[in-house]
Each structure stands twice: as structure tokens, then as C-alpha cells.
Queue: 4 jobs
Job 1
Amino acid sequence: MESYNEIIKILGGTTLVLAALFGFIGKVWLAKIVENYKVNLQQQLLEVQSDIDATNKKLNAKLQSATYISQIQLEHEYKIYQEIWVLLVELKTSTLRLRPAMDYVEPNQSQEDRIRERLQVFAEKFNAVFKALEHNRPFYPHEIYQVLDHVCEKCRHESIDSEDIERNNSEYYKEARKNQQEIVALINSACDSIRTRLGEVRVK
């Protein structure tokens, strides 16, 4: 105990020793805090860099997916879509009129004659769309052709189903509503496909 007190006296007293001890501990504690801060900061920087890399990959993917075509080709393709879309709207109208939910019935006209008359109008609109699709087929993407051809196929099926008037009204018009909903959905999908195509092309 006496030797311990002598050592304290040699070092400058208890207060000085404690101050030196606390100073040492403080430096160690501060160094630990700084180290933890560096680690956290480094982690945040890595996360930010990861987000930047992911964004760059998405942008590069969009740029790479862009299709570069000439101005003349773009204008020609755009005119094709305009022509087909007008005809497609007319086909949609004539198809939905084959078996409308609410119908005007001419007293002197039989159901067979009414269907036959509407099918004639449908056939004209259908043939116009089919002709436009096939004549312009080499000048727009095959993916767009497939979507539009699917619309035509569904409309054709509805025209065939509408001729089967021997079934009861409930089943007949239930099928009509189902077909009409699918046709409208397909036409909306075709519209989205055309918009996507025009949004992807770039003029070179």
C-alpha cells in the first residue's frame, strides 16, 4: 500500500492520474465512435452507389431497346396505324351491333333477316380491316400484326356465334356479352401496343 501511494505521488497525485486515465479512455471511446461513423458512412455510400448503378442499368436497357428507324419509315408506319385504327373502330361498332344488349326491333323484319343485314355490314368492315392488315404487313412490326389479327379473329368468332339464334335468349345474350367484353379488351390492348411501339422508336 505504501509503495502504491509512493507511485501515485511520483506520477503527480491521484487527480492527475485519474485525469490521464479518463483522457486515455476518452480518446479510445472517441476513436470507436469515429470508426463506427466511418463504417456507417461507407455503408450508406455503397447503398447510394448501388441505387445509381441500378438506375443506370434501367436507362441503358431503355436506350438499347429503342428502335432506330428513318423519318420516312416512321411517317409511313404512323399512317398505317392511323388507317388501321379508323377501320378497327368501325369493325368494333359493327361487331357489337350483331347482338346488342338493348336492341331496336323492326316489327316487319324477322330476327334472321336482322342478323343477315348486320352480318353484311360486319363483313364489309371486317374485310376492310383484314385487307389493311395484310397489305401493310411488311411495313410494321409482326408483334403489332399479331395483336390486331387476334382482334379480327375474335370478331369473326362473334359473327359466327351471332348466327346461332336457335338457343334460348339467356344463353345467347350471355355469350354475346362475354364476347363483346373480350373484343373491347383486345382492342384496348392493341391501342396500348401501338402506343408502346411509337414510344420506343427513334429517328436516326
Note: The chain has a mean pLDDT of 81.
Job 2
Amino acid sequence: MSGRADSETHPGISGADDVEAAGPEDHAEGYVDADAGVGGGGTVGEGDAGAPDDAGAPDDAGAPDDAEDEWEDPAEVARRARWTAAGAGALLTLAGLAASLLRLTRAASALVPAAYAAGAAVCAVAALIGSRGRTRRALWLLIAGTMVMALGDQLD
């Protein structure tokens, strides 16, 4: 039996001398059988030594039903983060350029459209580095670019 030295059930507790107690290899990782644990409050009778009952047993894959929905492929998570960073950067870049062009048509100071254009440029850089996998830096650049555009809005 593999595992820790104290993981074996004493024959007096299990009630069966010839049946091996359930070990960690009999259950899915992280699954604990309440009947097989030491001090579980109950005794293990004949015929069910180490066998989990069907009421609390995991499905065929060895994981509870909810765990299947929670597990995600790390590559898929990274791909989704890159697409999100690139998409948000492109969207904020287009918004900043549109605001810059709209402010150019007014009789306002040249500082306002320049602030929008500078914020759009920062967001464009964020979209570029976000698509290459630097999503944390892209997030901070998106925040900085949006703040520059907000400053331009305050100058208006």
C-alpha cells in the first residue's frame, strides 16, 4: 500500500483482517470517504470495508459533477486573456481616435485632441503587447491610456 505510514487502518477498527483498507489510490484526488477515515464516528461493517457507497460517490471520471465545470485548460485561459486584451485595446484606440477627430472640428485648444490621440496611442500599444501575451502590462497601459483620455476630456 502506498502513501503515508499512518494511512493504514488498524485491523481491529476495520473489522476485517483479510480485506485491505481503502487507501488513497482507491479514491480520486481530494476525495475523502467518510466511512474509511479514522474517528469517523461509525464502524465499517462486513462487505463494505473500504468501498464508498453510491450516495456520495463521485462519477465515473473520479471527480464530482461540479469539478468538471470548474476545471479549465490553462492554454485556453491564456488565449482568452490575449484576445480580451487585444480587443479592449483596439476598442479604446478607436474610441480615442474618434474623440480626437471630433475635438479637432471644434474651436477648442489643440491640447484636447492631442490628449485623446496620446491616450489612443497608449491603448494601441496595450493592444499590441496584450496580443503577444503580456496581458498584465497591457491592462495597466489600458488604464493609463484611458486616464490620459479622461484628462483630455477634463481639459475640454
Note: The chain has two domains: 1-71, 74-155.
Job 3
Amino acid sequence: MNDPNFLATPLFEGMAANVTPIEVIDTDDARMLANDGAVETQARYSFFGYNGQEGCAEKYNMIGYLAQPLYGIWASGPYFHNGSVPDLWSLLKSSDRPRIWRRKSKPSRFIVVMGFETDLAKGFDQSKVGWKYDTIPCSYLTFSPFNHCNPWDPNETPLIESGLSLLYGNGALAWNLLGNIVAPTFSNSDIEDRKIYNTRMFSQSNSGHTFTDVLTDEERTALNEDMKTL
């Protein structure tokens, strides 16, 4: 361990840099498709491209997402690259993933919008291993370009969302156009509603990573207990 070149040895090649094709993982691909030459260049000079692994930066663009380290995974929720899954239990059992949810907030104070609950005793679910949350009914959401859900068919992909997918594909166009069409609102209620995670929105899908759906609940519990030790 006194070898100064130890950290550069092949022993660590591939750690936290494995790329599985998006077609296999089947998670939301919006962030991957948004990667451009600038992102690729930055990745090449980050830990993604350590030890001269320029291929990692190449693979990062338009193939899939680089795997992250599992160290401390119990404390790194919400999960997936877009933070769409609140706990490890839901990650391991796709049918239990909430469609629209909001992480617990700190107790409210007069005219103050509070942040998320950071007290582990109040905000952390030790059995599911992740942040406690409230599920939000589809009927709660108002019709708007940013937060929409059809209460009569929650599985529907709204036409407006399909249009936004094309618009958000061009980041500059989205910022300039939507900034003129929809003026931001700043009431406490509006700000509080921004904490809602709606998996129907563009780039926020919680699909994919269904490999562990074959496990029994007992096996998932055992796996969760094991991940607490990482």
C-alpha cells in the first residue's frame, strides 16, 4: 500500500465506469441524448476517464450511463441518474415505485417554505432504505406545461408532454421560448409544489432496472440489509 503508483494500477480499471447499453437498462434516456461534445470533453478529464481511459468518455455519449460506486449507497438516495426512485426497495421492485411523490419536508414555519426533512429519525426509512415520501394523487396536479397528469388515465402520456420532449431536446430553444410563454410564479404554494416529483414529466421517468423484479420480498429485504453495510 506504500506504492505511489498503487491507485493507477489495472486493479482499479473499470471501477464505477462500466457502461451497460441503454437498451438493456431501459431507463430514461433524455440525459444521455443531451450529451454533446462539451460533455464528452469534460468526462474525459474527470474520474470517468481516469488512468487514460478516454474510451469511457466516448462510451458515456450515446450508449448508456456510467455505473456509479456502491459505497454508501444506503445514503445516496433518491436513486437512478434522475433521482426518480426514493428508496432502494422501490429500486429493487419496480411495481412499488411511486408515480408522483414528494419527499417529506421539515415542519412548516410562518410564511417560510421549508426544505426537505434532513433528520434521519424523521425523514429516513430504514426498512426501505431511502427517503420517506408522500404519494401525490394524479387529481392533485393542475393542468400546466410543467406538471400534468390525466386523473382518468394516469398511464397516459399527454400530448403536451410529447411536444415538450421535442422542445426540451433543444435546451436553448426551451429556455428562451418557455420563459416568454409561461411567467414563473413565486407563491409559497407554487414553491412547495416544485418539490413534487412527477415521473410523467420529460426526463423524469422511473422506468428500467427491472432485473430484480424476479426476487421475492424476503430476498429483497436481505439484499437491502446487505447494502446497508456498503
Note: Residues 16 and 67 are 5 Å apart (CA to CA).
Job 4
Amino acid sequence: MLEALAASLAEAWRTGHKIVLPEPASRPRDRAEAYRVQDRMADLIGAPVVGWKAGATSDAMRQRDGHDDIVPGRAFASCFFVGSEHVIDESLVRGARIEPEFAFRIDEPIPARQKAWSVEEITPRVTAHIAIELIGSRYRADTPPAELTTLTTIADNGNGVGLVIGDAITDPAAVDFHRHPIVLTIDGGDPAPNSPPDVRCSPFHALVDVANLLSARGIGLEAGTYITTGSATDTVPVVPGTRAVADFGRLGRISLLFSRLSGG
């Protein structure tokens, strides 16, 4: 039954169609089963993995959204962009939402190991970046919110859709990541509210938590891959034909135009 869910989620990824959440007996019963579905979904999608996304990366975020721990997902090369300005085929991100975030490029491998990684060990191995994550569910919009649990979300690639990596942050030690203002607008409209400081994560600590969560599953982080660490503003929907701009002030900006580039 978990194989059927993984196949349905992978097909939804490829087609952009939404699926009906299966009956409780056909859903993951614990994190191990949820990871199994996500892993199989990734196998069936078959696209190269360029990194990982992470949700629920602060205690306040977990309490707000009803998660018990970090919710990881893969970032696939088929919806991955590096740079400050892009035109994105809206068929790739249909129904997605926009999240400005802070992310990291892995410069030196962080292998899986028994001993937990520390912030002091990992910090020299990475470069911080501004980023936008595109999130979205493969489950139908009319699915009751109470049914979308941590386990069903993990199974659905952690709600991951796409990832945009912007400028490197040259002096992350000088950035107050909990309060740094980000102006997210659509076609120059009213900006999305910034997440309160207690809801925002500490990106370096979130990175270490993700590394250790994956390490416990025997998954290391390879050089050249990316990790993003959770939204810093309210999310806004992708609207075809509009331009989204996330202005991180002195850290840079990312501009995305969502346009129909194919017949999908």
C-alpha cells in the first residue's frame, strides 16, 4: 500500500495533478514508513537530487504547524535555479507557494556518522545564501487540514516543489537571522508579513539538525548540494503571469517571473 502511495505521489509530481489522500490504513504509520514513501517517490521521479529542504525548523514553527520534528524533503534538479533573476515555467510550480529563506551550499562533504555533528564543525564547511523555496502539496486542495499530518507531509517530499538559490552571504556572523527584514512582493503589491523572531529558525542550528536527522538515516551531504532551512515570511501563492520579488536588503534580492514556457 505504501508503494501505491509513492507511485501516486511521483505521478502527481510529473503531471502536476493532485491526488486523493488514501484511507488511513494506506498511510504511513510512523516516520520510518513516511521516509520509505518519500524515498520511493524520489526513485520513481528519477531526477538528480541537488539538496534538501527542511520545514518545521524551530520549536515555535512546529507548535504552530503541528509537527513533532523537522520535516525534510528533497530538492530535485528539475526545479532548481541558481542566481538572482529567473523566468520559471508556471507549469513546473502550479499551485505552489513562495517562501523566502536562508540556505547553505555544502562546500566540504558532511558524511553520515554515528556521532552528532555540531555547529562548530559544520560552519566552516558551508556557505550561506539567500533563497526562495517553492512549496506545495500533491494532495487535493479539498483534503481536510487535520488529515495532512507530519507523516503524510514527509511522504509527499516534505511539500517540496522547487528551490532558488540567490547571492552568497559574505558575513553571516553579522546577520541577525531572526529579525533581518525581507520584503516579499507580487507585482509590487503589499509585502508579505515577516515571520516573528521566535518562529524563524537559527539557520546554522537548523542546518545541523537537518544534517544529523539525515545522518541518522545513513544519508550524508555531498559537496555542491544545498540545504534550505525554513520560511522567514508568510507564504504567498504563485500566480501565473506575475513577478515575485524577495528583497533581502543588503544581502541581495531574488526576482522570479512565472510564465507559461511550455504547453504543459
Note: The chain has a mean pLDDT of 96.
